[in-house]
Amino acid sequence: MRVSIDSDVCIGSGMCALTAPSVFTQDDDGFGTVRPGRADGGGDPLVKEAVRSCPVQAVTVAED
Questions:
Q1: Which range marks the domain in which residue 17 is found?
Q2: What Å distances lie between residue 51 and 18, 29, CA to CA?
Q3: Model pTM?
Q4: Which partner for 17 in 24, 60, 63, 64 could form a disulfide, CB atoms 3.0-4.6 Å apart?
């Protein structure tokens, strides 16, 4: 799987980082980012929940 956040859409709600903190974090401006080396989701079962919890659908998962 490939995890990404569309920075043009992200509003910085932080739901991704709260839901799956091993995969997502927030940058200095408060916007969501994928942690370095975690773009594959790291096997975290909460990644898909983080996708659902994003209020603006900025987080996406593409299955390989």
A1: 2-62
A2: 12, 20
A3: 0.91
A4: 24
Q: To the nearest 10°, report the CA torsion of 6, 36, 47, 16.
A: -60
Burial state string for 6-32 with b = 16 or more CB within 10 A and e = fewer than 16 = eeeebeebbbbbebbeebbebeeeeeb
> Do you know the residue count of the chain?
64
Give the CATH number, domain containing residue 39. 3.30.70.20
- Distance between CA atoms of 60 and 3, rounded to whole angstroms? 6
